[in-house]
Amino acid sequence: MPTVPISQKRVGASAFKSRGMNINASTGAESSNVTQGLSQVVKQATQIGMREKKKADDLAVTSAYTKLKTKKDIRLHGEKGEGGGYFSQKGLDPLNSYESYKKDFQGDVDELLGTIGSKAARKRFSLAAERVTAEFSGQMNNHAVKEKDFYNKKETQSSIARLRETAA
Asked: pTM higher than 0.85 for the full model?
């Protein structure tokens, strides 16, 4: 086992100088380079983290939007193969169930909004959901108006037919 000679027992700046080392050398330019290097690493890690967060937010918004469009189609047309849905209603039924369908669809929007974690992503989804909700309401309104017109026309024709029968 090597032994430390008694003359060099003391460890300090003078002991390093005797071996040709200078402990004060790292405080100048080298320290600045290390600090800049660490700063760049932290900056790059932050940028990577932000990109990954944006990707996750984009995926969450896209997924929720796709699910909302699917729910809209199911509410309007019914499940595939099962029929039903708002468009299957005839006569005055669409007018009577309009608010119920609208409320149920808003529940779908709220449910999907709850699945998104980021505040910015929730805001983006909310804006997209407003457009889908307006589209949904417009399609329901068009159907209700067409059915009401058809119902009124049918009622008018049957009333005219009854009047003709009673007049004859």
From this structure: no
Crossing angle for the helix pair 93-113 and 29-77, nearest 10 degrees?
160
Give the Cα separation of 35 and 167 in Å (integer): 102
pLDDT in tens, 85-135: 899 889 888 889 999 999 999 999 999 999 998 999 999 999 999 999 999
Question: Angle at CA 87, nearest 5°, toward 82 and 89?
Answer: 90
CA 98 centroid distance within chain: 27
Query: What is the C-alpha to C-alpha distance for residues 86 and 147, in angstroms, rounded to an integer?
Result: 11
- Please name the residue that has the structure tokens 């169930």: 97
Q: Three-state DSSP class for 59?
A: helix
Query: Which SS3 state, helix, strand or coil, does residue 20 take?
Result: coil
Q: Are 8 and 15 in contact (CB under 8 A)?
A: yes
Mean of pLDDT values over 44-62: 92
Confidence of residue 151 (pLDDT cuts 50, 70, 90): confident
**Can you give the residue ranges of every domain in the chain?**
56-167
